[in-house]
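Q: Given only this backbone (158 positions), what sequence would you predict?
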């Protein structure tokens, strides 16, 4: 691992550990972000597994200590503390591999699809329970419900 931490690669690794973004490191050295990522991966892969696990556990302990100090002011409404807590939680989730792989918008879209199907199924069941409705009346009722749901969805209510 020694040669991987010499020269520019060592400087890239230290800046990364200090929390600098890959983009900022790339700009500083006049290289691409992809090259910075490659250097970080090379250094990371050169670290023995036992040392990587120990470092990860130490990092988690540090994050837990930070969380302990930041949580009371965050719960009291301190905006800066709340932002710090969110960053700590994101970092912890990333370290544990529990950060979401899909953007939240995709997850919400999928959720809306499920809710929409549930509404449609419930409405169909209600229509089936009403005896004597003609096909035309059923279509009119479903069209009205769809119109209402669509309008509410556009207004951000649903």
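A: Predicted residues:
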């Amino acid at each position: 691992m020694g040669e991987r931490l010499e020269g520019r690669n060592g400087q890239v690794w230290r800046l990364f550990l200090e929390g600098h973004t890959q983009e900022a490191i790339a700009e500083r050295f006049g290289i691409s972000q992809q090259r910075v990522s490659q250097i970080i991966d090379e250094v990371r892969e050169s670290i023995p597994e036992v040392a990587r696990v120990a470092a990860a556990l130490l990092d988690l302990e540090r994050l837990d200590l930070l969380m302990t100090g930041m949580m009371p002011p965050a719960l009291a409404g301190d905006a800066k503390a709340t932002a710090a807590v969110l960053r700590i939680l994101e970092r912890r989730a990333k370290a544990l591999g529990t950060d979401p792989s899909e953007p939240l918008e995709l997850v919400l879209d999928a959720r809306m699809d499920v809710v929409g199907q549930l509404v449609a199924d419930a409405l169909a069941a209600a229509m089936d329970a009403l005896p004597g409705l003609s096909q035309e009346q059923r279509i009119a009722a479903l069209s009205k419900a769809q119109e209402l749901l669509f309008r509410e969805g556009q207004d951000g209510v649903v």
